Amino acid sequence: MTEAGFHAHEENGGILARDAPILAPPPRTEPASAENAAELSFGPEFEHIHILSNAQVAMILQVSARAAVNRDEEPHPVYRKTQKYVDRFNTMTNPEKEHQELVDALDNLQDALTTFRKETEDGEEMELHGSEVAALMNLVATDTMVEEAVALIPSLSRFPEAAIDEILDLIRSTMIRIVS
What's the predicted TM-score (pTM) here? Predict the structure, then answer.
């Protein structure tokens, strides 16, 4: 499993997201730095966090909801709103597929995007930032074009067009496997 791996597991009625510790951001001790998603600058409080896609959050919330039902608990209103949001925007779902099959498909896509590398003409190796991986996993429309991906995720403009198209092909093939 890679460092950025995602797994939703039910264990003693709870959820474990392995390799993705849930941490509160450290207290801010210095003035806020200029945050700019297009330049992948998010500030120090976001340096060591693991960003999840809508599909991953939906999977975690589904497991949590089942556990709450088993404990005869009512979900918090914020939980219900979050669930409604991710369900609305999560197109990487298929009710006919097993839960673990969907988790595995999402893991594989995240691994492929996290380990994606392209070498520049200068010999520098470029990779996707965690925020780009999550945003790309949310762009699951099978007809997303390079220009649209760059418009929605401006930091991708540092990659050559062919590399972005390769990334989008990874997403398309995963989406097709999930929904078929």
Answer: 0.70
